[in-house]
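Tokens for chain A. Residues wanted.
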């Protein structure tokens, strides 16, 4: 049985403060992985899927891409 960890993510999307709850069962949730999930949450339905991150992107690349797409100030806290 996988032990799911629940994390609250506070961030800004297009300058508006937001929060989202992420459940992760594969080790600790990093800011980069949170950025990946937020990009997918906000832009997965975009007609152009080129904005979605590469599967092997590093945390630094994910955070940079998120910032370009208007997702900033990502903060993780335990639920």
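Reply:
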């Amino acid at each position: 049985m996988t032990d799911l960890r629940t994390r609250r993510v506070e961030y800004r999307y297009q300058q508006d403060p937001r929060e989202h709850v992420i459940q992760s069962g594969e080790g600790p949730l990093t800011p980069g992985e949170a950025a990946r999930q937020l990009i997918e949450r906000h832009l997965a339905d975009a007609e152009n899927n080129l904005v979605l991150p590469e599967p092997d992107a590093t945390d630094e690349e994910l955070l940079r891409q998120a910032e370009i797409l208007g997702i900033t100030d990502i903060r993780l806290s335990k639920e």
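The mean pLDDT is 87. The radius of gyration is 12 Å.
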